[in-house]
Amino acid sequence: MPLPQPVSRKPLHTRRVEYRGYEREDGLWDIEGEMIDTKPHAFEIEGERRWEPEEPIHHMHIRVTLDDRMVIREIAVAMDAFPHQPCPQAQAPMQRMVGETVGRGWRQTIERHLGGIQGCTHLRELLFNLATAAFQSRSASFAPPSDGQPPLHLGKCLAWDFNGPVVERVYPLFFRWQRPARAVPGAA
Fold first, then answer.
1. Same domain, 70 and 154
2. pLDDT digit string, tens, across residues 107-135
3. Residue 143 covered by a domain
4. 117 and 97 in one domain?
5. How deeply is 168 buried, as exposed, middle or buried, from its count of CB atoms within 10 A (0-12, 13-18, 19+)?
6. What's the CA gap between 24 and 57, in Å, rounded?
7. Tens-place pLDDT, residues 3-30
8. Domains held by the chain: number
């Protein structure tokens, strides 16, 4: 179903983001992200340069190689277009993510290693959503993890409510599941 008809308006900016997931011959997984920002009109950033209509302001790529435990083994980054001379310096800090696990606390992990002036806002944005693409790429089957814990996506959206019909049908083992209560220090 399409969106309702908008009022008259003019286009100002387009951001295209695409993710692709691959299973490699060596048993690892590659997840690639690409971001392209354009404007339909020419513009200039004072002291930088002028961009023509539809010329990319940002055109950035990232490839994250993961193992079966979702641990990052490698990261590759490319910046085909960027607005400011120092931008490419943000590529090297991306290597700080090697060894980290894509999963719970992912956004906090990114912020810890690349937050603020440690990295690039646009590369962080690509990483944030790359996790979803990684899980989608790896979900060839809906088999639950072997550790007895529910898959990470359960309880994270309306459709995957532990008390809902989708979990009851697809993951009956976790239907009405509740996270175990944490032990309180000093409680008897």
1. no
2. 999 999 999 999 999 999 999 999 999 98
3. no
4. yes
5. middle
6. 32
7. 999 999 999 999 999 999 999 999 999 9
8. 2
